[in-house]
Amino acid sequence: MERFKSRARRLRESQTSAEARLWQALRNRQLARWKFCRQHPVDRYVVDFVTLDGKLIVEVDGVTHSSPSEIERDEARTKVLEACGFFVLRVSNTDVYENIEGVLELIRSSLRFD
Fold it and tell me: Do the beta carbons of residue 77 and residue 60 sit within 8 Å?
């Protein structure tokens, strides 16, 4: 577990500009009062953003996630995270840069209120 915490710390220090932009909109309960964490360990993965109470994971994907092998890897990762009880939402870097309000609305509408 310590290995995952260490990796999460390193990822927080080296976040992408798209992740930094989205984090500015999610931090401090700015989105409908949901508490989000960034670069948080879930099972054997470190996810970009998660709200534990809302059981929602948001992954910000760049162009490297479009190759067949990466798509397959992401699908396997999503299955593991869903088995842990989370809904996984994937958004692209481009969407974060060009349509942050749309991304936030998608996240808001994906949150579970049960």
Answer: no
- Taking a C-beta distance cutoff of 8 angstroms, is the pair 110, 95 a contact? no
Residue spans of beta strands (DSSP E) within 26-110: 37-42, 45-51, 56-61, 87-92
Model pLDDT, residue 5:
62
Q: What is the mean pLDDT of each run of 10 residues along the chain (114 residues)?
A: 60 77 96 93 94 96 76 94 97 96 96 66
Question: Which positions ≥6 away from 25 have C-beta within 8 Å?
Answer: 31, 100, 104
pLDDT at residue number 15? 79
Give the closest residue to 59 by CA, choosing from 33, 93, 31, 28: 93
Class of domain 2-110: alpha beta
